[in-house]
Amino acid sequence: MVKIRRVIIYILAILVAIWSIIPVYWFINMSFMTENEVASVPVHFWPQFPTLANYLRMLGYNATATVGNKTVYFLPSGYASAIKSGMVNSTIVAFCITAVTLAIAIPTGYAFGRYKFRAKNKLLFTLLMSRSLPPISIVIPFFMLFQTIDLLGTLSGLIIIYTSITIPLMTWILMGYFATLPIEVERAARVDGCTRLSALRRVVIPMASAGIGTVAILTFLISWNEFLFAWLLNAGTPAQTLPPVFPAMLYHIIDNTGLAAATIISLIPVMAIALVFGRYITRLKIVDPVTTTGG
Amino acid sequence: MRGLKTQKKSSSPFSLTDEKFALILIIPIIVFELVLVAYPLAYSFWLSLNDVIFIRRTIKFIGPGNYITTILDPNFLRYLFTTLRMTFDITVLVIFSALGIALLLNETFKGRTLLRMIVLLPWAVSEYCTGVIFRFLYSEQIGFFNSLLMVSGLINKNLLILTPEWAPEFVSIAYAWHYTPLIVFFLLAGLQTVPEDLYRAARVDGAGSIKRFTKVTYPHLRYAIIISLLLASMQAAIATDSIILLTGGGPGIATASLTWHIYELSFRNLVLGMGAAYSYILLVIMFILGSAYFRILFRKRG
Question: Which of A20, A80, B49, B275 is deepest in the core (most CB within 10 A)?
Answer without folding.
Answer: B275
